[in-house]
Each structure stands twice: as structure tokens, then as C-alpha cells.
Amino acid sequence: MAEWLIEQGIGETRWLLVEGDKALAARLVWPGELTAGTVVTAQLVSKAKGARRGLARIETPAFAGREVLVDHLPPEVTEGAQLDLVITRAALAERGRYKLAQARIGSEAAPATAQGRIVPRFPQGLWEDLWHAASAASIGFDGGEILFSATPAMTVIDIDGAAPPRAAALAAIPAIAQALRWFDLGGNIAIDFPTLPAKADRRAVDTALEAALADWPHERTAMNGFGLVQLVARLDGPSLLHRFATARVGLCARLALRQAEGAQGTGRILLLTVHPALKPKLRAEWLDELARRTGREVRLETNPALALETTSAQIISA
User: What does the pLDDT look like over 204-260, one tens digit per residue?
Assistant: First the structure.
């Protein structure tokens, strides 16, 4: 039976849905993020006359001063009103802009979509596989690969393969279904399949896609004559792909801490060597927490020859 496992990492909390030796889905939360389902109190600071949408400033201490967009405001609510809000979508950083979190009036937290079990460490390799797939924005399948592009408007999925168009489209579907869950994708998603002139071929792909996504809540268009399918799913926060598009260095810094935390060996010093760009992202409190968790003195060095995603973590005696 599939089970959500939770790693309480340094600088991030990781969720991984595991069944046997397979990772089925993932989620990622960074400390201080205003996540969907959170209940806060706020003051409405801006609302146009007759509008059902406004801007509120949070007063709840943990998030005090942050601004959120509030939808579906009752007509009688005016500026200055005190509101109980439920966050419906976390804030999103995108290339060139920042989208505020969204909320609605309510005083009850949204029910948890899943219960998880806290573990010291995920099974070997599972998190690494999906993390590197998200970093590369690519997942391979027999005869090709699917490529991802996170844009402000939507996530675009392209199929690249040498097989005949129908065969390539059908072979790509399991990888697409896997990626949607691995990368925690939502919102508008466009899949650019190879062009299939024959209606029967397009129906075959539509049927296969419907079966593969039967347990993934969404709406979907039928494939058009150019091979395009559009999916729309609930978006409640940044996907792994969007985090890589806007905060790659921060993701790599957190991965370095995870790898360092799992370093094995004897000695009193943990030597962590990273690309120079990661050093400013490794907060002092994170390194202190790494020292506490490992019971070792942490020394940080940089090496410009390393890739952002490559970390050296060694246990040494002096």
C-alpha cells in the first residue's frame, strides 16, 4: 500500500509517496511558507467599489505583514474589516514577477490531503531520482524523452522521440503521468504530442491518457489536430519545476545539506565542499543545525569546478 513518508530536512520538509521500492509522488515545503489550507486573521486594506476581490494584510504573528489576495468577498465587506481567511494557494515566484498568495473567507483549515509518517531518511535513491529529473526538466521513456518548460502562463510538456508519432505518443504517456505526480504539477498544463492526422490515432492517445490519469484530479481537452492536449488541475503552490525555474541555487544548497547530513565515516569534522554560488545560501543557522544533527564540527569549503548540483561531504579527523 502506498504511504506518504516525510523527511524533516534542514531548510525544507520533503514528502514522498512510496509504494514498495517506487516513488509515486512528491511535495516540498520551505520553512515560513504560507501554504494552502493555513488559517490566518487579516485586515482588508484595499477593495475597489463593487469588486469581489481585494488585498488583505495578515495579522497572525507567524505571517504578520504579508499581503494576500482575497477572492469572493461579500459585497458588505469594506476596507479596514477584520477577516478570518483560509489560504487557497501559496505565493508563487515566477520569472520577472511575484504572485501573492490567494485566500478566501473562512475559519477552518482545509482538511489534510494526506497523512504522512516521519522518517529519518527516505529509501535510498528515490528522492535523488525525482530531484534530478526535475532539475533536468526531463524524464526518459522507451524511445525518447519528455521535456518540461515552466512558464508564467502554463507548464509545457514536449515529447521528443525517434519512433513513429503514434508509438511515441503512447510510449510517452506513462512518463507524463509519473512526472505530473513527481513534480507536484498543477494549474494549466499543455502537452505537445506528435501531430497525429488520423482521428483514430488521436482517440487512442486520448483513451490511454485518460486511463493513466484516472486517479489524478483534473480536467482535460481532447487532442486537437496539431497534437495539443490541455490539462487543468488544482494549483495550491509551486511545483518542483517552478522552484527550479526560480530558485535553483536555493534547491541545490538544501540538497547539499541533505547529502552532508547522510555522510558516513569516522572522525570529528564534516567537510562540506560546494560550488561558490551555494555558499551565500547556506545560512549560519542551517550549518549549526547540520552540526547538531551529525554531532560534528562543520567546515565549509568551495570549489568552482563543482556543478551546482554536485556536493562533496567527507568525514575527516582533522
Answer: 999 999 999 999 999 999 999 999 999 999 999 999 999 999 999 999 999 999 999
Query: Average per-residue pLDDT in the chain?
Result: 94
Contact 90, 35 (CB under 8 A): yes
What stretch(es) of the chain map to CATH 2.40.50?
Answer: 39-105
Between CA 265 and CA 304 the distance in angstroms is 25
- What distance in Å separates the CA atoms of residue 87 and residue 286, rounded to the nearest whole number? 28
* Domain 39-105, CATH number (from 3.90.550, 2.60.120, 2.40.50, 3.30.70): 2.40.50
* Structural contact between residues 85 and 103, judged by C-beta atoms closer than 8 angstroms: yes
Q: Where are the alpha helices (DSSP H) in the chain?
A: 126-136, 165-182, 199-212, 240-261, 284-294
State the Cα–Cα distance between residues 251 and 260, nearest whole angstrom.
14
CA of 1: how far to CAs of 18, 22, 124, in Å? 8, 11, 19
Kindly report, as residue ranges, where domains of CATH 3.40.1260.20 are found in the chain. 247-316
